[in-house]
Amino acid sequence: MTTTFNLTEFFGGAITAQLPAGYADVSNIREVPDHQEIYLDASGFSSIIIEIAERVTDPPSDQEALKFHFEDIVDEHDSSRIWNTDVVAQLPHFPLNTPSYTLLATTTPPPATDGTARALTPKFVAVILTLIRLVPQSTDIVVTINIPHIPGHQEPSVGEVNFEEGKFGSLVEEGVRIRDEVWRSLEVRDWGLFGGETQ
Prior knowledge:
alpha+beta
């Protein structure tokens, strides 16, 4: 199935990117923090979050900062595992050599203590996170695609997923395609959004 994308404005049009046409702006139904834009798949459970954060300097390395931002979004009760961090984001609309990294991870909620699973509790959530480091602006842009795998609702076919063997399944593969389109199209239209130095 071919995914249709629409040019989408974030932070009052200061940043734009192509997002799937079926994703809806969460701020239309509930309050969203000013430093975030959240879009939810209207026909499923996946979400895309674009966040502007102060640049992480401790830990000092880019790879450690990537893991820091991931750990920051993981619920303290969930277990997590990072599967892949060796892909460098390709961002044609950003200054040359802008540090940018991505990871693929999973988070798993704890089992229900009363022995009964809650409705719509995911078996696990695949997380595709991209970190873009704007050094002159002392800013990190974090783009997170969350893909819950929910039994009976949003889950791949039996045997389709085995992260140990590098089989990520159709849901994650679609998430990667969305990530790649965001990379291709993501553009800062107003560098004044970050204050301080411009491009």
